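Dear colleague,

Thank you for sharing your sequence with our group. We've completed the structure prediction you requested, and as agreed, I am returning the results in plain text so they can be pasted directly into your records. Please verify that the sequence below matches your submission; if there's any discrepancy, let me know and we will rerun it promptly.
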Amino acid sequence: QVQLVESGGGLVQAGGSLRLSCAASGRTFSKKSMGWFRQAPGKEREFVAAISWSGGSTSYVDSVKGQFTISRDNAKNTAYLQMNTLKPEDTADYYCASTGGIYGSGGSSEKMYNYWGQGTQVTVSS
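Please find the predicted structure tokens below.
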């Protein structure tokens, strides 16, 4: 079983930055791919970024490429999402997720992820 706890959300002005953290419990974190998703008010949850178990492979939704960076520190059992040049349209609840299997590369489908955090709210004011 894996438990995920996000932190780092908050209110920021447009153009600002935030770094979200996802702390994971369990001994298999370093073997699992991680993903970040977000859900804006009134919208479906969407994929944001994913990182493989080793950190050697990452993927992003087109709208955040060059703006967001996903990373992980397996020694700390933590994944991160660095968000720069934030825009009002980045306002959403952000969720981290972990795959059930090990040694995968992650991906954009929610079906790949078995474990989810409770979410952290990000609000970008204009």
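Summary note from our side: DSSP finds no helices and eleven strands in the chain.

Kind regards,
the structure core
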